[in-house]
Amino acid sequence: MLGFAPGKGDRMPNARLEVLSEEDCRALLRQGAIGRVAVSVGAIPEIFPVNFCLIDDSIFFRTARGTKLFAAALGAVVAFQVDNFDVGARQGWSVLVVGPTDEVTQPDEIARAKSQLDEGWVPGGPDRVLRVTPYRVSGRRTAVNP
After folding, report:
1. In CATH terms, is domain 22-144 a member of 2.30.110.10?
2. Which phi-psi region, left, alpha or beta, contains residue 43 (left: φ > 0; alpha: ψ -120 to 50)?
3. I need a labelling partner for 95 at 20 to 30 A (CA). Which of 14, 37, 48, 131 fits?
4. Does the pLDDT of residue 5 top 60, yes or no?
5. How far is CA 48 from CA 15, 54, 77, 116, 138, in A?
């Protein structure tokens, strides 16, 4: 997706695709606020946008009990993706994290995560906190050579 060109012949010959180090990926994750969680719901992949934060090396997000996301993600291995693009400049980055999820149940961990998480956009927002523990972190960035 990072090599996508909106129109035929619009590719930039001086553009390059850079594979990011895990350290660079984690730095970019800290810049993000909205990510996407990909889970399997009844063997069908579904993707949910979520507010998130990075604490230590784990990703935390809120969801509500009873949602497809809560049911599908709890204990599952998920893909979590964050990106940022400037279409006009044809520059951007994308980070992918893969790992298992668990519900955060310790009151001090819940309070720490909620203090860094947005309340959400829907009144009476989600009350549960899930954690993704990364076992694979990868990313790419497009840039234009000077």
Report:
1. yes
2. left
3. 14
4. no
5. 31, 17, 15, 20, 20
Judging by DSSP bridges, how do beta strands 34-41 and 15-19 pair with one another?
A: unpaired
* Amino acid code (one letter) for 79: A
3-state secondary structure the chain: CCCCCCCCCCCCCCEEEEECCHHHHHHHHHHCCEEEEEEEECCEEEEEEEEEEEECCEEEEEECCCCHHHHHHCCCEEEEEEEEEECCCCEEEEEEEEEEEEECCCHHHHHHHHHHCCCCCCCCCCCEEEEECCCEEEEEEEEECC
pLDDT bracket for residue 63 (50, 70, 90): confident
Query: How do the domains of the chain map onto residue ranges?
Result: 22-144
Task: With 0.90 as the threshold, say if the pTM is over it.
Answer: no
